[in-house]
Structures are given as C-alpha cells and as structure tokens.
Amino acid sequence: MFERFTKDARAVVRGAVEHRERSGSGSVDPEHLLLALLDRKASRASFTLTALGLAPEERKESVRRALGDARRRAGLSQAEADALAGLGIDVSEIVARVEEVHGVGAMSGDRRDKESWSGRRVFSRGAKDVLEKSLRIAVAHRDRHVGDEHFLLALTVLPGVPGEVLADHGVTHEAATRVLYGGGEARAAG
Q1: What pLDDT does 108 receive?
Q2: Top-confidence residue, 118 or 175
Q3: Confidence of residue 151 (pLDDT cuts 50, 70, 90)
Q4: DSSP letter string, the chain
Q5: Which domains does the chain have, with CATH numbers?
C-alpha cells in the first residue's frame, strides 16, 4: 500500500512516527497522524485545513491541547465523557484522582518503559484503519495515489477523538471534501 503514497503522505507517516516517539507512546495512533498533518505546509491537506480556518498557529495549538486532554482521559472522546457524565460518572474526577496517585498522564496508556525492543514502528488498529480508509477514499475519488488529503478525509469520517476534535474546529468530512473536490468556492490545488 505504501508504494501508492505521495511524497506528502509518506512525510505524514514519518511525522506520525516522530510524534509517537516524542510522546513515548507504544504505537502510532490516529492522533499522531493528525498531529503530523498539522505540521505539513504546502500540501493539499494543509491547504484544506487553512481554507477551513485551521491555519493560525493558535488554532493548531487548540487541536493539540484537545488531543492531549483526550489522551489524559485514556483516549475517551468528549462525547464519551459526556455520556458517562449522564450516568453519573465524572471522568474529570477519575482522571484527577488517578493522576494524584500515579502522576500526570497516568491514564494515557503511554508505555515509556516498555519500548519495543525490536525497533519496529507499531501502528495501532486505529492508525491502520485511517491508512486503509485513506486508500478507499482515494480509490472512490479515482485518485491515482494516496495523499495527505486522503488521511485528512479518513480522520474526519472515522469515529474517534481526531474526528471529533477536527469537527469541533470546523473541519468536517463534508467541508473538507467540498474544498478538495469542488462544490465550493475554494479548491485545493493538486
């Protein structure tokens, strides 16, 4: 599948691996792919994010904070935390108590002390789903290669924290598709 990736898509995968390594996470997750997308400049995905209002650095930082908050909640989306609150379970209180005893970020699932001895870059099931969905999206649009824009579209359509965070910042699947493939005034250059 990687042979079908554009230079920008490969750069996003490399960037996701770097984000994983910096975070100490045991695997590359969809959140790492999103962070790597936010780092890109002069690509179809970066143009789309800019067109949808996610260009200013403070908005990118807002996305990074929202991803960090979700990671501290053990990867629960805000919708999931709200659903638990409806059952009388205060996720913020649970996180605070766990962090009080075990330290900040204890619920994140990061395995800093259990780094893979093989040196392999492990992709989580969620990250693999993003890559597979990206390929399906590219094929559906009759695009010859998988680009970083397909990663963006996959993140917006798949359930989970990255899609929720993007939607909270005005980047929905419909809006991104409109920018990339027409139906609106802006169109990403290819």
Answers
A1: 62
A2: 175
A3: very high
A4: -GGGB-HHHHHHHHHHHHHHHHHT-SSB-HHHHHHHHHH--SSHHHHHHHHTT--SHHHHHHHHHHHHHHHHTTT--HHHHHHHHHTT--HHHHHHHHHHHH-TTTTS---GGG--TT---PBPHHHHHHHHHHHHHHHHTT-SSB-HHHHHHHHHHSSSHHHHHHHHTT--HHHHHHHHHSSSS-----
A5: 2-77+144-181 (1.10.1780.10)
